[in-house]
Amino acid sequence: MHLPNTGSLVTRSWNDTPIARRTTDGYVNATAMCKANGKRWSDYRESDRCQQYLDALEAETGISGFDLIQSSRGGTGSLTMVHPQVAVDLARWISAPFAVWMDGWFLEGFERVSHVRDTQPVLSPEQQKLEWLMGFCSKWQVQLDARDMLHIKEHARSLALPPAGQGQTVFNDYPVSRLVQDLFGVVLSNAKYSTIGRLLAKMWRAEHNGENPPRHDQYVDGACRAVAHYPREWAEPALKVLQKENPTLFQR
Predict the structure, then answer these.
(1) Contact indicator for 226, 160 with CB cutoff of 8 Å
(2) Do residues 17 and 100 share a domain?
């Protein structure tokens, strides 16, 4: 029996039942999902639908079915944590209203409420390219996976930001990757972003009485993860210091 790692959790409640999700990998408490809706996990797990989905997901991700579903049994009963994509399918099996609610939870941190304009804004060339891309995908039924959608959302968000000094925006802090790309004009490997992120977080804690940098949910590697974000006015000078100390770290 694979013992699920509880790790750091965030919870939301449905029908007064708390449902936990791990921040480290996005795995969701499937036992609680079913309990909140008067369903039995075993009914879903034993269905052809579930097995077909697990087979397809294992083939696509390379994650074994043993790791897609992590179950344990203890003194308080059984606990099953499932991969976020399995959680999405489980929610759809349970009910449409619950699936919509789960979608909203998973998309927190991406969806921003924008003010409705009375007039149609003039699109920049980059915005026109993005609009063309989405139209092309729709017309030719091009399937976009979770990673594709993340890149598109991040690009759309960058296009929504006004130039410096030209108005307010709801986005007032940024992830390391965005800051590095804007400041130095380079796209680095995930390993280098991770190293820079650790150094930047260390500098932040040193200047903020040991407090960790603010974090927001982002969809990373198939799961919603808490990613450190920094105010641009603080991060850019700090990044310049790091770049001066270790220039090769900021080279492709």
Answers:
(1) no
(2) yes
Residue with tokens 């344990």: 72
Domain containing 244 equals: 172-252
Name the nearest CA neighbour of 231 among 179, 191, 186.
Answer: 179
Taken as a whole, the chain contains a residue count of 252
Checking if the pLDDT of 232 tops 50, the result is: yes
**CATH number of the domain where residue 82 is located:** 3.10.260
30 in a structural domain? yes
∠ CA(249), CA(251), CA(252), 5° rounding?
115
Q: Tens digits of per-residue pLDDT, 175-222?
A: 888 889 888 888 888 788 889 999 999 999 999 998 888 887 665 554
pLDDT (tens digit per residue) in 67-125 = 999 988 765 678 999 999 999 999 999 999 999 999 888 877 455 443 334 445 566 66
Distance of CA 190 to the CA centre of its chain: 15
Place of tokens 């309990």: 35
Backbone angles phi, psi at 230, to 5 degrees: -135, 145
Domain count for the chain, please give it. 3
- CA-derived radius of gyration, the chain: 21
